[in-house]
Amino acid sequence: MKRPIIIVLFLMLLVACSKSEGGEAPEYTATPLSLDVPAFFQENILAPVIPITNPLTEEGVALGKKLFFDPILSADNSISCAECHAPSSAFTDTDRFSDGVNGVLGNRNAMPLFNLAWNFDERFFWDGSATSLEDQVFHPITDATEMANTWEKVIGALEANSEYTDMFLSAFGEGEIDSLKVARAIAQFERTLISGNSKFDRFLAGELELTEAELNGRDVFMDETRGDCFHCHGNPNNPLWTDNLFHNNGLDSTFVDLGLGRVTGDPADNGKFKSPSLRNLAFTPPYMHDGRFATLEEVIDHYSEGLQNSDTVDPLMKKVAQGGVQLTEQDKADLKAFLLTLSDDEFISNTAFREQ
Predict the structure, then answer these.
(1) Residues 26-70: pLDDT tens digits?
(2) For the range 95-103, what are the long-range contacts, defined as Cβ-Cβ under 8 Å and sequence gap of 24 or more?
(3) Which residues sit opposite 17 in a β-bridge?
(4) Average pLDDT over residues 300-323
(5) Are 199 and 208 spatial neighbours (Cβ–Cβ below 8 Å)?
(6) Residue 248 burial class via C-beta count within 10 angstroms: exposed 0-12, middle 13-18, buried 19 and up
(7) Which domain holds residue 335?
(8) Residue 8 falls within a domain, yes or no?
(9) What is the CATH number of the domain that holds 71?
(10) Residue 227 included in any domain
(11) How far is the C-alpha of 250 from the C-alpha of 312, rounded, in Å?
């Protein structure tokens, strides 16, 4: 009787040892990926925001990049994310309003996409209607004025493509495809879009000098009695060149597009839109949420003498009663020269951000 009992106990011990030593199949983990963060960013701002529910991986970023450039996400396979967010334009659209698969124009200019991992406010779109980068992905795919698709059709098309089923398996450890995985992958790719090597960045690093006009333009930007631009768009110690907050910057006295107010339902938010980064202005015209200004000169003229008063105009528009800050023509030209030093040629030519 003792011998069978000993055998049973021995087998139980083997099973226990097997479990304790990882005998069960380990949970799949894709290859971790770290962002290539410029030293100046590390020295001056907080670490990027990477959700614990969507860590960056080599496989996830590769999948997100493929999805970003693939028209398979649109209802008629005619447009991709890159149609409205082109790498050569710092991931925005040079058209004032982008047209979707049905040829219907929206009413806002496509926002550029870079340095999104430092959006600490975690509100995206001009009106803040998306509460994460993952959430932001959901809107254009099903919007009637953009890709006009359904998730059922998107998933069906991806599942019918063996390359995608393999890539989803590599990125997430399972071949099943769903909308959340699509959003997570694209968000991973978008977080890698880092712009941090402009002429002004190199000036701060001591690698080159700015011209007299560019230096005066910087002073205009920082001067509360002249440009007074830094409150919303930061200063040389803020490499993002935006506060990522929402302001009514005096574009209109009455509002057709309520902006943040449409999202919050608070009349005090009417006419407020997200401050865009001033990086890459050379590549991102037209300007403002509705693309109303075709040139930087028009933007500068607006703040100089074109401000419109309204109930919700931002207190930072201190000279709205005078129409603006009333810059001299020389200061306008110099301010433009400075703003253009914030453009990053390396970013728009980076092959890691382009379709292969």
Answers:
(1) 678 899 999 999 999 999 999 998 999 999 999 999 999 999 999
(2) 95/291, 96/286, 96/290, 96/291, 96/292, 97/291, 98/146, 100/74, 100/143, 100/144, 100/145, 100/146, 100/147, 100/148, 101/74, 101/75, 101/76, 101/146, 101/147, 101/148, 102/144, 102/145, 102/148
(3) none
(4) 97
(5) yes
(6) buried
(7) 199-347
(8) no
(9) 1.10.760.10
(10) yes
(11) 9
Which one-letter amino acid corresponds to residue 330? Q
Tell me whether residue 280 is in a domain. yes
* Rounded Cα gap, residues 286 and 271, in angstroms: 19
**Alpha helix (H) residue ranges in 205-318:** 212-222, 230-233, 260-264, 296-305
Per-residue model confidence (pLDDT) at position 25: 57
Residue 5 lies in a domain: no
- If we measure between CA atoms, which residue out of 75, 117, 125 comes closest to residue 100? 75
Q: What's the rounded Cα separation, in Å, for the pair 356 and 341?
A: 29
Rounded mean pLDDT, 292-318: 98
Q: Are residues 65 and 184 in the same domain?
A: yes
- Same domain, residue pair 224 and 127: no
Looking at the chain, the whole-number percentage of residues with pLDDT higher than 90 is 88
